[in-house]
Write a structure and sequence with these properties.
The longest helix has 19 residues. The protein has a single domain, classed as Winged helix-like DNA-binding domain superfamily/Winged helix DNA-binding domain (Arc Repressor Mutant, subunit A, Orthogonal Bundle). Strands 1-3-2 form a 3-stranded antiparallel β-sheet. The chain has 99 residues and is of the alpha+beta class. It contains 5 helices and 3 strands, in the order H-H-E-H-H-E-E-H. The N and C termini lie far apart (31 Å).
């Protein structure tokens, strides 16, 4: 077998332990940075910043600066990110079945 393993590529795309949690949070709709830090226990600002930047570069999320006094930034899933999140339900079902 030559080339990269597709499954390994997907796992690398998801990032570290917080990657799937970040994407899952965004399935509910656009969230701001502070909302994400509050929603994900134990994530540092640096880890969240790095992961969001990586997801944006991969085309999984959209970064939307807001024109308000607080200069907030919203994050939401792209169609590509939403499609990837669709797999999470299947992974959850598998994990529950083989627990």
């Amino acid at each position: 077998m030559t080339g990269a393993c597709p499954v390994a590529e997907i796992l690398r795309t998801l990032g570290g332990k917080h990657g799937p949690r970040i994407l899952h949070c965004l399935t509910e709709g656009e969230l701001h940075f502070l909302e994400l830090t509050r929603a994900i226990d134990g994530i540092s600002r640096k880890v969240l910043t790095d992961q969001l930047k990586d997801f944006e570069e991969q085309g999984l999320i959209l970064r939307s600066p807001k024109n308000d006094a607080r200069q907030r930034v919203g994050y939401s899933l792209t169609a590509k990110g939403d499609a990837l999140c669709g797999v999470f339900g299947q992974l959850y079902d598998w994990s529950q079945y083989y627990r």
